[in-house]
Design brief:
single chain; 339 residues; alpha/beta; Rossmann fold; L-2-Hydroxyisocaproate Dehydrogenase, Chain A, domain 2; 2 domains; 6-stranded parallel sheet; 3-stranded antiparallel sheet; 11 strands; globular; L-malate dehydrogenase (NAD+) activity; EC 1.1.1.37
């Protein structure tokens, strides 16, 4: 499953082609937390994905209303909404579970501030998936991803059903931001700025490998530092702009739908689907870090290959050095919660 020296080909679809389709089978997708700020637009976007045949929407409140609304969109997929007491029914027969459930970030909050509330929510949902749909692919959006993914892994492991090839932390928003922000300062198209973003999904654990794309190679000094900071802390920008009314829900929904489509294409047998995602990884296992986001090839078994980071600039080496201890701490926090 893991490839330390495999070739890489990360090509992100343009904004006008959020979804790519495949001639292979369609799939039932369940959204846990469909009534929330991310869940609602995510559900709408998934309704338009040609690879989704059945969309199952669940939340402790509001999912049935979201389902009724989204079901009017003129695409072929069937939509069903489920209240809190019907979680098992929502999960029955699903192949992909997307989890945006949890509380949003507010001004002054870090992702770690969300931990105590969201950790419990994610653990309980993971336990339900283990019981009802143990072979499903699980996509974790709920923050802090650096900790919630290990929580899901440990919960599945306790139930005896953990498959590291089928658990993903969705870090696509970092990739989307890197592409958009780099294009804005270089004048290139975002579709041509396919920046691999590795590490984790919060602040200094986010490591954009700008040197690996032509548009980013020449950046240095203050321009480079400002761009890296904006990629790492883009969420703060949105929280501040919304003035307490929410966090990056719309862009996160877009990123979540984009990653879901990539996974569905891989599951359907499409070759060469490569994108960054936070998975159980051997890349830094020797440092006690067993989850890491890097370029991952997706396929019929979920994770098919985990690619090495490739050559790093001196600046990226420093970013990685700052990332690793913080990421290790986040991961251990998630594990300790379940233990």
């Amino acid at each position: 499953m893991f490839a330390r020296n495999a070739s890489r080909a990360f090509v992100a679809p343009s904004a006008s082609r959020l979804f790519s389709s495949s001639s292979a089978r369609q799939t039932k997708v369940t959204v846990l937390g469909a009534g929330g700020g991310i869940g609602q637009p995510l559900s709408l976007l998934l309704k338009t994905d040609p690879l989704v045949s059945n969309l199952s929407l669940y939340d402790i409140r509001g999912a049935q209303g979201v389902a009724a609304d989204v079901s009017h969109v003129d695409t072929a997929s069937e939509v069903n909404g489920y209240p809190m007491e019907n979680l098992d029914e929502a999960l029955d027969g699903t192949k992909v579970v997307v989890i945006p459930a949890g509380v949003p970030r507010k001004p002054g909050m870090t992702r770690d501030d969300l931990f105590n509330t969201n950790a419990s929510i994610v653990r309980d949902l993971a336990a339900a998936v283990a019981r009802v749909a143990p072979t499903a692919n699980i996509l974790v959006i709920s923050n802090p991803v650096n900790s919630t993914v290990p929580i899901v892994a440990a919960t599945l492991d306790k139930a005896g059903v953990f498959d590291p090839a089928r658990l993903f932390g969705v870090t696509t928003l970092d990739v989307v931001r890197a592409s958009r922000f780099l294009s804005a300062i270089t004048g290139a198209s975002p579709a041509d700025c396919n920046v691999p973003v590795v590490g984790g999904h919060s602040g200094p654990t986010i490591v954009p490998l700008l040197s690996q794309v032509p548009q980013g190679k020449s950046l240095q000094g203050e321009s480079y530092d400002k761009l890296v900071h904006r990629i790492q802390f883009g969420g703060d920008e949105v929280v501040k702009a919304k003035d307490g009314a929410g966090s990056a829900t719309l862009s996160m929904a877009y990123a979540g739908a984009k990653f879901t489509n990539s996974l569905l294409r891989g599951l359907a047998g499409e070759k060469g689907v490569v994108t960054p995602t936070f998975v159980k990884s051997p890349l830094f296992a020797d440092k006690g870090i067993d989850f890491f986001s890097s370029l991952v090839e997706l396929g019929v078994n979920g994770v098919e290959k985990i690619h090495p980071l490739g050559p790093l600039s001196a600046s990226e080496e420093k970013l990685l050095e700052a990332c690793l201890p913080e990421l290790k701490k986040n991961i251990e926090k998630g594990k300790a919660f379940v233990a």
